[in-house]
Write a structure and sequence with these properties.
Strand order of the largest sheet: 2-1-3-4-5
Shape: globular
Helix content: 40-55%
Order of helices and strands: EHEHEHEHEHEEEEHEHHEE
Number of helices: 8
CATH architecture of the largest domain: 3-Layer(aba) Sandwich
Number of strands: 12
Radius of gyration: 18 Å
Oligomer: single chain
CATH superfamily of the largest domain: Response regulator
Strand content: 15-25%
């Protein structure tokens, strides 16, 4: 990478984790900023304009959820949450309150790097327009201006709900979208507990796209949390 390497802010109170991420990120060419407390992290976020934030949930001075909430008041920077807490409710809470991804400790450095790359790609695309007008990976084409979908040159007939779910996942490509967000945005706030609606629509989408849930090409399940639209370069496959 050049001098314009992405700036990654790591906010974690564990010195070993900070050192591990510092070495790994720098090896990949990133510019790394390190903070051991919420106060230090928010100060760096405000003054150094990071391109991405890796935020631990368990900080000594404030909860990571509180830091995320404050950060979201003035910044849309992608945030990847780190935590030893692997309960579904913790992941859903973080995603619903503005986190873009969630990784539990211990984690593999290669998986983490892949998720960071996906978030940074999404940030670049979103900088111009949060909704890409056309997605085309050589097989699947989604034309959001015409609301048309095709697979290998053949049109794919989707219902309104199927298209809405696909478009929402595509808009957040590379990031986890929680079940609650999908249900709220597509069906409405009164249906956030109706997860069976979503399972049915995802199942139909996979059938129409020929997408195997065991080896997904586009629609990946994040168990107990939500779904992720995989990007065409093989992210998370």
């Amino acid at each position: 990478m050049s001098a314009a390497a992405p700036r990654v802010l790591v906010i974690d109170d564990e010195a070993q984790i900070r050192r591990f991420l510092d070495i790994g990120l720098r090896a990949e060419g990133y510019h790394v900023l390190l903070a051991a407390t919420a106060a230090e992290g928010l100060a760096l976020a405000a003054t150094q304009s990071p391109d991405l934030v890796v935020l631990d949930l368990g900080l000594p001075d404030r909860e990571g959820h509180e830091v995320l909430a404050e950060l979201r008041q003035w910044s849309n920077v992608p945030v990847l949450m780190l935590s030893v807490r692997d309960a579904e409710k913790e992941k859903v809470r973080a995603l619903d309150h503005g986190a873009n991804d969630y990784v539990t400790k211990p984690f593999g450095i290669q998986e983490l790097m892949a998720r960071l790359r996906a978030l940074l790609r999404t940030r670049v695309v979103a900088g111009a327009d949060d909704t890409p007008a056309r997605y085309d990976d050589g097989h699947l084409v989604v034309d959001q201006l015409r609301r048309e979908v095709s697979l290998d040159g053949e049109p794919v007939a989707l219902t309104r709900k199927e298209y809405a779910v696909l478009a929402l996942l595509l808009r957040h490509a590379g990031r986890v979208v929680s079940q609650q967000q999908l249900l709220r945005d597509v069906w409405g706030a009164s249906h956030v507990q109706d997860t069976h609606y979503l399972r049915i629509v995802i199942g139909r989408l996979r059938q129409k796209l020929g997408d195997d849930p065991a080896a997904p090409q586009w629609l990946k399940t994040e168990p107990g949390v939500g779904y992720r639209f995989l990007e065409s370069d093989g992210d998370a496959r």
